[in-house]
Amino acid sequence: MINLDVTIMDQPYRLSCQEGGERTLREAVHYLDSKMKALRDSGKVKGNDRIAVMAALSVAAEFLSVKSTGPLSGLSILEVKEKIDAMHHVLDSALTPQENLF
C-alpha cells in the first residue's frame, strides 16, 4: 500500500491505494473534485455534506447507467478490464507472427 496526498474541494486528504493504482485513484479524485465543485459553484446545493452526497448520487447513477446496458451489463468494471486485457493478449499473440513477415 502507498499513500497519496490529494485535495478535494480545497481540503487535503491522505488516501491509501495498492501500488500501481495511483493513476486510477488520482483520476477518481479529479473526477469527484470536479463534480463537487460544479455543484458548489451552481449555488443550488449548500454545505459540504450535501454537496458530497449529491456528487456521490450523481456518480452512482452514472455508474449504474453504464453498467446496466450492453453485452457486458452483468460484469463489474474490473471484470470488463480483465476481458479487455485478455483480448489484447489474444490480438498480440495473433499479430506478432505477422510482424515477422515484413
Question: What would you say this structure looks like, in words?
Answer:
It contains 3 helices and 2 strands, in the order ββααα. The chain is α+β, with helices and mostly antiparallel strands. The longest helix has 23 residues, at 77-99. The radius of gyration is 19 Å and the shape is elongated. The mean pLDDT is 86.
Question: Given the helix and strand composition, which structural class is it?
Answer: alpha+beta
Low-pLDDT sequence parts: none
Side by side, the strands of the main sheet go: 1-2
Number of helical segments?
Answer: 3
How can the largest sheet be summarized?
2 strands, antiparallel
The average pLDDT score comes to: 86
Number of DSSP strand runs: 2
Tell me the Rg in angstroms: 19 Å
User: Strand fraction band?
Assistant: 5-15%
N-to-C series of helices and strands:
EEHHH
Which of globular, elongated, flat, extended, rod-shaped describes the shape? elongated
Distance between the termini: 45 Å
Classify the helix fraction into a percent range. 55-70%
Key phrases:
single chain, 102 residues, alpha+beta, 3 helices, 2 strands, elongated
Outline:
By secondary structure, the chain is α+β, with helices and mostly antiparallel strands. It has helices at 22-42, 48-67, 77-99, and strands spanning 2-8, 11-17.
